[in-house]
């Protein structure tokens, strides 16, 4: 297994958000946390993935469908580093190794998308269909 992990800068993340925005079937709100938010805020130079929280199965299905249309594929559990195996996420990856970790309301069975998190969220990206923000907790919705 390749242990090298590429870091993707904020412009790459924004480009991927724009690609997904073009293929979403309808308006979809996502909340983003982790390294992608830190990179977008200038706290890190890059990230290996984008950690996304959605509020509904419909939003999850819309996002996964759009990513598959944009040539992402479902990452096999065997190809993921050990910490990923226990996560309750849908993990999709592109040919360059950039991953989307998509959680439905709960991250890693520990962090819940609360009303307070949603209230603190700040708009980071708005396309025609994709809305992404984040909060003081470094959670953003797209």
Structure description:
It is a single chain. The chain has 142 residues and is α/β, with parallel strands linked by helices. It has one domain (10-141): Beta Polymerase, domain 2 (2-Layer Sandwich). Helix content is 30%, strand content 30%. The protein has 5 helices and 10 strands; from the N terminus they run αβαβαβαββββαβββ. A hairpin with a 5-residue loop joins strand 4 (89-93) and strand 5. It is globular, with a radius of gyration of 14 Å. The chain starts with 9 loop residues before the first helix and ends with a strand.
Explain briefly what this protein structure is.
With 142 residues, this protein is an alpha/beta fold. It contains 5 helices and 10 strands. α1 packs across α3 (57-69).
Topology:
Layout: H1 10-23, E1 28-33, H2 35-40, E2 49-54, H3 57-69, E3 73-74, H4 82-85, E4 89-93, E5 99-104, E6 106-107, E7 111-112, H5 115-120, E8 122-126, E9 130-134, E10 139-141
Regarding CATH, which class?
Alpha Beta
Share in helix? 25-40%
User: From the structure provided, what is the oligomeric state, counting identical versus distinct chains?
Assistant: single chain
Share of residues in strands = 25-35%
Beta strand count: 10
**Overall CATH architecture:** 2-Layer Sandwich
Helix count equals 5
Mean of residue pLDDT values: 82
């Amino acid at each position: 297994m390749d242990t090298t992990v590429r870091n993707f800068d904020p412009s790459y993340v924004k480009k991927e958000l724009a690609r997904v925005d073009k293929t979403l079937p309808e308006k979809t709100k996502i909340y983003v946390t982790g390294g992608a938010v830190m990179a977008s805020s200038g706290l890190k130079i890059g990230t290996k993935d984008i950690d996304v929280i959605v509020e509904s199965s419909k939003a999850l299905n819309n996002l996964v469908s759009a990513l598959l249309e944009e040539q992402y594929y479902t990452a096999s559990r065997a190809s993921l580093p050990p910490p990923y195996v226990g996560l309750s996420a849908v993990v999709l990856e592109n040919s360059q190794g950039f991953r989307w970790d998509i959680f439905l309301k709960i991250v890693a069975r520990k962090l819940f998308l609360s009303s307070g998190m949603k209230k603190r969220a700040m708009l980071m990206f708005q396309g025609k269909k994709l809305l992404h923000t984040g909060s003081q907790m470094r959670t953003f919705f797209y």
